[in-house]
Each structure stands twice: as C-alpha cells, then as structure tokens.
C-alpha cells in the first residue's frame, strides 16, 4: 500500500508485522514512556464510579485511533510553522492503518458484532482502511486501587448527554435543551487545545445565566500528546472519540442515548464542488456514521443505545435563528467555528477563509445576527475582504456557485448532480421518497438563504461597486464582475427540447430515474432494482423477457 502503517499501542509486542511495513508507530497511554496523555480521571473523578471495562476499552481504542489519525499524514503539507498546506488528494490520502491494541476483554472486541462494526464505521468516517488485532491487557493501571461507590452524583438528575465543541451548532443544542426545553443536559467537551478554554468558560457562564436552575453540567475531558504526533490536521476520527466519551458517561448514569447537534447540510456532507473534497468534506455526523456508532454502542452496552442528531433537518441559518429567538444571541460571539485555530488571536477569532468560517458568516448574516458576531472578529471579511489567489478564492467561488445552482434546480437535476443523496436515504427510517424530498428541500432552503445574503450585499455596496472601491477578489466584486462579463453564476438553465417536453418519459438521469406520464409533472424514482426492471420492460413493449434474463442484464450493467 502507498500509505500503510502499523500502530503498536501500549505494551504490545512488535512481532509478526505485515511484510514490507517498517517503522511502526508506538503509542503509549500508561507507564513512564507514554506519548499520549488521556485525562480519563477527569471522567472518573466527576462520576465517583468505576467505568465499565467495555467502555474503558472503547475510550482507549478511540484515543489511540484519534492520535494515530493525526500522527500519520495523508500526503499533504500538514502543519508547518503554524500554517498548513492543502492536502494533495492522491494515493496517500487513503491510509491503511493496522492497530495492535491491548484490551481488558479481547473476546468481546474480536467478536464480529463489535469488530466488524468498528472497522466499517471508522472506514467510512475517515476514508481509511482499518485492521485491528486485540491482545489481553496484562496490567490495568486505570482501575487499580479505585473504590466503586455504586452510584454517581448525576444519577436521576441528567435528562440528556450531548457533545459540546463550542461551535454554533453545539451551542444551539445546549440552548435547545437547557433554555427552551428546560432539561438538565450534561455537555461532554473534549478539549483538543487549551487555547479555546477561556471562550468555552465564558460560553458556559452565559448559558448558566440564561438557563437559570436548569443550567447545563459541563464535563471537560482532555487528551494531550507529544508534539511529534500532530502532523495531520484533518482529524476525521475526532467524532469517534467524542462519541466514546459521551456514551461512557451516559452509560454510567443510567442513560442509553447521546446526542450530536449538527445542522443537516454539514451532516449530509454533499460536497458543493470539486474543490470541497478530502478534509473539507467531513463525515463527523453523517447519518451512516451515527448509525454505525449506534450499532457499536448497542453491542458494547448489551442493550439498545441511541445516537441522535436533532438538528438533522435544520440549516446553519436555522440554528443561528434558534439561538437568537431564544434570547441567547450574546452566546454567538463566544462560539468558535474556525478550523484554523493556529491563526486565532484576540483580535481575530476566525480566519474568515476556511469553509466553516464561510458557512458560519453566511448563516449569521442570513439570520440577522451580525450584531452578535462582530465583523472585525474575522481576519477576512466575507463580503468585502480581499482573498488571495488559489484555495481561499476558489473555496468561496465554489460555495457561491453551488448555492446559485441549487437555488434554481428542480429535484431531478439535484439528484442527478448529487448522487450521494440517493444513497443516504437508506440511513433513515420511513419512506425513501419522503426522505429524499426532505433532503432536497433542506438544500434548497440553504441555497435560498445564501443567495439572499449575496443579493442584500450587492444592494448595500452598490455605490462602492460603482466607484470600484472594493478589492477585485472580494465576494461582491466577484459576483458582479462574473455577471458583467457574461459568465453568470454557473446556473445554466436546461435547454428545452422535444425530449424534455414529451408526454411520457422513463429514463435514467444521473443516479435516479426521471418519469412523466400522460403529460403530467416530472417525478423521480430513487435507484432500485424494481425501477431498472420496469425500464427494461417499457423499453421493449410486447417483447417477452424472462426474469432470469432481466436479472442477468442488471448484473452486467452494474
């Protein structure tokens, strides 16, 4: 493999490594020569109760996976002198990671129910190939000499356990639970950098003020590692560590559910353009990932365990509106969305260039909450800030072009363009057709909110545009210059042809089937064997064809 590494965890042996694999990565969480420092005692001290062994193993595995994810590069520049180069999406992007990990219950982790689910979920989450070998943990230092009090101080008083990153969506989730629903929520926060601690502390103080006697309980868990282990910035496995920590705590206090709060556009992860790939198109809360977590945790807990995203059908603008409408707009400025934390300063808490900053600022403006999110906090202003050539400019242009296209895109073109949307419907209960239309309507709403911000910006800056006072590379000038040159916004309406206007249509278009009967409205069918068989029959009217022949044709065409 082009990018294959073995990761030896704890005190496991280095014998029988795969042929050709050299220089294994060593990760230790215990002992005098440890490289990874997981503050599991933060959890246990707060709980006053021993963690179940299956979940101790889960946290160990999640911590090792998270650290290896950052230690083994995908072939990009990584972090160099506080900056990053864009990853080269090529043969090194997908890695083969072979873990050898000591656990307290090897038989459990080797069982198909657990191991297969672990591998498939992580593989989809990070787009890597995973292999696990489990050995018996000889010395369990985490449990030695610890008293089990039997109960925790939170038994019976916590209604929900939710993940809290300090971003807008997780802040809105805390507002929903504690302020609007008047529920006691325990917020699990994995602190990847102490740089964000003051902002998190201020957020929680404000949340306490708004929630009154239903203030959230905040439980930070820290993981530190040697500097040499921070070579890859993408951190796609981070949500696995988040979920593991939250599920452990939920189990200890008698709950069988955890919640991620993330808007649906980010969760569904339909890349808006060819530029938005790799680390930018993350799968942190993708429905397939959350379902994988659910199945894995159900196996470990020995009973049904739920992993939910209550914001699945909300846009980022909806999330910001929720915060503002709840009277909690003062929380917005202390939330953090930027992925370039190494650029953060007291003056500029957001870079304004990364996709998360672009998404955040559009949502804030569309929700009318700019008064609670000062423009000077962004190193580059969304509307009139000058952007350098290359990635920063291409990212913004792609974001706008996709919003423009979707804004005027009928359902059939949407599903032809975004074939992945037709596959994600299987991750939801209920009618596939109903789910598909909910996805389409979610993206249409998001596009309308984004283009509405652009329209208002053109009106607002009309005099400056006329006087050519704005930087040529800023958003407003880019939009106006493209329109003036005749390039438009990339949204080219479909040409009306006889085929488009035919009374009866049944044809494949992209990943879906387009149908019309007797001059009625166009409809779509999601990919299925039944639709393919029906198309074969309609293509050859009055021609006998056996079921076996149809099945063979379909198999050949896959």
In short:
By secondary structure, the protein is an alpha/beta fold. The protein has helices at 40-47, 53-71, 106-110, 112-126, 168-180, 197-211, 238-252, 264-268, 287-301, 316-325, 355-366, 391-407, 411-417, 420-424, 432-460, 462-466, 475-484, 529-539, 547-557, and strands spanning 4-9, 25-27, 36-38, 79-80, 83-84, 96-103, 129-136, 160-163, 185-191, 217-225, 257-259, 306-308, 505-509, 512-516, 523-525.
Protein described:
By secondary structure, the chain is an alpha/beta fold. Among the domains are: 4-136, no CATH class; 349-498, no CATH class; 505-557, no CATH class. Helix content is 41%, strand content 13%. The protein is built from 19 helices and 15 strands. It has helices at 40-47, 53-71, 106-110, 112-126, 168-180, 197-211, 238-252, 264-268, 287-301, 316-325, 355-366, 391-407, 411-417, 420-424, 432-460, 462-466, 475-484, 529-539, 547-557; strands spanning 4-9, 25-27, 36-38, 79-80, 83-84, 96-103, 129-136, 160-163, 185-191, 217-225, 257-259, 306-308, 505-509, 512-516, 523-525. Strands 2-1-6-7 form a four-stranded parallel β-sheet. A hairpin with a 2-residue loop joins strand 4 (79-80) and strand 5. The longest helix is centred in the last third of the chain and has 29 residues, at 432-460. The radius of gyration is 26 Å and the shape is globular. Residues 77-90, 143-149, 273-280 and 487-499 have low confidence and may be disordered.
């Amino acid at each position: 493999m082009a990018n294959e590494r073995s990761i030896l965890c704890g005190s496991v042996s280095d014998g029988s490594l795969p042929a050709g694999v050299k220089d294994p990565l060593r990760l230790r969480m215990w002992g005098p020569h440890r490289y990874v420092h997981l503050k599991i005692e933060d959890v246990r001290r707060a709980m006053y109760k021993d963690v179940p062994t299956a979940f101790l193993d889960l946290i160990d595995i999640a911590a090792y996976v998270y650290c290896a994810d950052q230690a083994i590069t995908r072939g990009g520049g990584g972090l160099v002198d506080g900056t990053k180069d864009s990853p080269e999406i090529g043969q090194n992007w997908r890695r083969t990671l072979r873990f050898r990990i000591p656990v307290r219950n090897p038989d459990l982790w080797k069982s198909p129910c657990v191991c297969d689910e672990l591998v498939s979920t992580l593989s989809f989450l990070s787009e890597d190939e995973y292999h696990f070998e489990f050995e018996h943990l000889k010395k369990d230092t985490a449990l030695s000499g610890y008293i089990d009090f039997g109960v925790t101080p939170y038994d019976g008083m916590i209604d929900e356990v939710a993940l809290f990153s300090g971003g807008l969506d997780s802040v809105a989730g805390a507002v929903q639970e504690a302020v609007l629903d008047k529920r006691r929520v325990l917020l699990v926060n994995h602190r990847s950098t102490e740089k964000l601690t003051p902002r998190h502390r201020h957020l929680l103080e404000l949340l306490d003020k708004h929630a009154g006697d239903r203030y959230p309980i905040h439980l930070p868990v820290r993981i530190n590692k040697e500097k040499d282990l921070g070579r890859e910035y993408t951190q796609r496995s981070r949500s696995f560590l988040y979920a593991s920590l939250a599920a452990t705590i939920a189990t200890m206090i008698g709950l069988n559910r955890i919640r991620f709060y993330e808007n649906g556009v980010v969760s569904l992860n339909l890349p808006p353009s060819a530029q938005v790939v790799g680390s930018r198109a993350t799968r942190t809360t993708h429905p397939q990932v959350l379902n994988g977590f659910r199945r894995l945790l159900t196996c470990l807990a020995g009973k049904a365990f739920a992993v939910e995203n209550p914001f699945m059908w909300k846009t980022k603008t909806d999330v910001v509106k929720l915060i503002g409408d709840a009277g909690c707009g003062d929380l917005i400025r202390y939330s953090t969305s930027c992925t370039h934390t190494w650029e953060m300063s007291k003056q500029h808490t957001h870079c304004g260039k990364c996709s998360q900053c672009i998404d955040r600022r559009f949502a804030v403006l569309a929700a009318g909450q700019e008064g609670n999110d000062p423009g000077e906090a962004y190193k580059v202003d969304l509307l009139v800030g000058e952007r350098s050539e290359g990635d920063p400019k291409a990212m913004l242009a792609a974001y706008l072009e996709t919003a423009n296209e979707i804004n005027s895109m009928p359902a059939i073109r949407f599903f032809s363009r975004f074939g992945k949307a037709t596959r994600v419907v299987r991750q939801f209960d209920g009618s596939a057709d109903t789910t598909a239309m909910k996805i389409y309507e979610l993206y249409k709403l998001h596009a309308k909110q984004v283009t509405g911000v652009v329209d208002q910006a053109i009106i607002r800056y009309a005099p400056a545009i006329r006087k050519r006072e704005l930087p040529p590379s800023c958003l407003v000038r880019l939009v106006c210059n493209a329109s003036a040159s005749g390039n438009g916004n990339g949204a080219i309406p479909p040409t009306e042809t006889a085929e488009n206007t035919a009374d009866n249509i049944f044809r494949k278009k992209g990943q879906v089937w387009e149908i019309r009967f007797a001059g009625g409205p166009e409809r779509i069918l999601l990919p299925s064997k039944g639709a393919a068989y029906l198309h074969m029959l309609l293509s050859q009217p009055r021609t006998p064809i056996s079921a076996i022949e149809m099945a063979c044709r379909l198999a050949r065409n896959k």
